[in-house]
Design brief:
Blueprint: H1 20-34, H2 40-47, H3 51-58, H4 62-65, H5 71-80, H6 85-88, H7 92-142
Helix pairs in contact: 2-3
Length: 148
Amino acid sequence: MFYKNYTFGISAHWGIKMTAKKEFKKSLKKLIKSKGYKSNQALADEVGMTANKIQRLSCTAKKSADQKIDLDDADKIATALGTTLGYMCGNKYTDYMLSQTRMMSDYFKQRKKVRIHLENALEVALQEDRIDEYLDEILANVDSLKRN
């Protein structure tokens, strides 16, 4: 097939050639841990596979790196892990999309912090205005001779 030796992903930025298959296996291994699966069996039960198959698919050893990965199996796993095949295979466009999404998210989080700060400042200003009005009312009613 024309895409057999095609490389994807961040690893290409550092001059390391990594196939989509190897990147998938590496990502699977990391995601199993980060998503809190206690064992391969837990993920296998969720996707309808055997624990041995999950083990084989996540093994990055050289002898198993060239084993075929069924696209349907990869899709089931990616879906169960709440991600995409593009992400798991290190697709550069997925990485770009995620970096743009992260940048926009950071922008709006920063705007939210500023907005909260401004809202707090406005609330303090309104409280100070109410206090000032109250104090003016006391002075107007009690200090009718305007001694102070």
